[in-house]
Specification:
Blueprint lengths: L1 H13 L19 H5 L28 E8 L5 E12 L3 E18 L5 E19 L5 E14 L2 E15 L5 E15 L11 E9 L5 E7 L16 E2 L5 E2 L5 H6 L2 E7 L5 E8 H6 L11 E9 L2 E11 L2 E11 L2
Antiparallel strand pairs: 1-2, 1-16, 2-3, 3-4, 4-5, 5-6, 6-7, 7-8, 8-9, 9-12, 10-11, 12-13, 13-14, 14-15, 15-16
Protein name: Penicillin-binding protein
Organism: Lutibacter maritimus
Length: 336
């Protein structure tokens, strides 16, 4: 019993900074899209991107019909995240459905008992499959979309599965420079629990907008996440202070500091060209991984995209810590 509790804590909370640290299936908030990762990791206003409906189902429309994406993220500690997305047109009246499968492999581990004696090896992974659809309200520029997700998580001989849903409302007009959206992600239920304790899915309510400049080839993206919970600040151990009496004081977060932790921003240069550059900044990641005695550039992201006929290749670099970075690769194919 003690071993499974330790394993669940390790895989469900330590690897991902989450609100409250009490959620299950936290890999659902990890992006495998290179374009999204390069723009700060949270962007939800990418129109015509086959990977975007995983986070915002209201972006599903005919522009992603018959497109395929394969993504690979080389994450922290040699953790691998692989996903594939595809959109299929049912008919012109019904529209397009979107599917995605995501697989997070934690690798191989040495199993040991409570005395530290090795008992063998074990694997751990997370898996999800989603199906999404969006409806365009007749005569308007508003779209309402939803995903249903089937989730499975395995740690050694223990497993859990659940069901999740996402909802999104989008305003999009191809002649307007603005895109505005509101999403609710990871509403759901843990059907089978690990250890008699039913945990919550990592709920996230986010607002996002983008603006395409008229005379400059730049699109700006802005996201406010975790609207369902104001206080998301987690103290950074490197910012602890020690008094002359030896008393340790944790970092205190101000109103403004906590507000900025909800924000991610990104900029895409030459978004409509065959080659484009992307940059982003995640304020929360920067604050939680900041080191007082060394410049880390934590929270900064960057990447590029190349289009060759019906093929697109995207790459993203994300900075976490002086000793840890991640790279994301995406190959997109237009099968039309």
């Amino acid at each position: 019993m003690k071993k499974i509790v330790i394993l669940i804590f390790l895989f469900s909370t330590t690897l991902y900074a989450q609100v409250g640290g009490e959620n299950i299936y936290n890999f659902l908030n990890l992006t495998s899209s290179s374009r999204q990762a390069a723009l700060g990791g949270k962007v939800i206003t990418l129109i015509g991107d086959i990977n975007q409906p995983i986070w915002n189902p209201s972006t599903i429309n005919s522009s992603i019909e018959n497109q395929l994406a394969i993504n690979y993220l080389n994450y922290l500690a040699d953790i691998s995240f692989i996903s594939a997305s595809y959109a299929h047109l049912i008919n012109r009246n019904f529209g397009v459905i979107h599917t995605n499968i995501s697989y997070l492999n934690y690798g191989n581990f040495i199993s040991a008992d409570e005395e530290g004696n090795e008992t063998g090896n074990f694997k751990a992974y997370d898996l999800s499959f989603s199906l999404g659809y969006a409806y365009n309200f007749e005569g308007s520029d508003f779209f309402l979309g939803g995903n249903i997700k089937f989730i499975n998580s395995v740690i050694e001989n223990f497993s859990s599965y659940g069901i999740g849903t996402d909802f999104g409302l989008l305003y999009y007009n191809e002649y307007s420079p603005y895109v505005v959206t509101l999403i609710v992600r990871n509403l759901g239920y843990q059907v089978k629990v690990y250890d008699e304790i039913r945990e919550k899915l990592p709920l996230d309510i986010s607002f996002g907008t983008s603006y395409k400049l008229e005379n400059v080839p730049i699109t700006w993206h802005f996201v406010i996440d975790n609207l369902q919970q104001w206080d998301i600040a987690v103290s950074n151990p490197s910012n602890e202070t020690t008094s002359i009496d030896g008393e340790i004081s944790e970092e205190k977060s101000s109103f403004l500091d906590n507000a900025f932790r909800h924000i991610s921003v990104g900029a895409e240069l030459f978004p409509d060209k065959g080659f484009n550059l992307r940059f982003g900044y995640n304020f929360r990641r920067s604050k939680e991984l900041f080191l007082t005695d060394k410049r880390t550039f934590a929270g900064f992201t960057a990447g590029f995209g190349i289009k060759l006929n019906k093929l697109k290749f995207n790459y993203a670099f994300s900075k976490y810590h002086p000793a840890t970075n991640s790279s994301t690769f995406s190959l997109l194919v237009n099968l039309n």
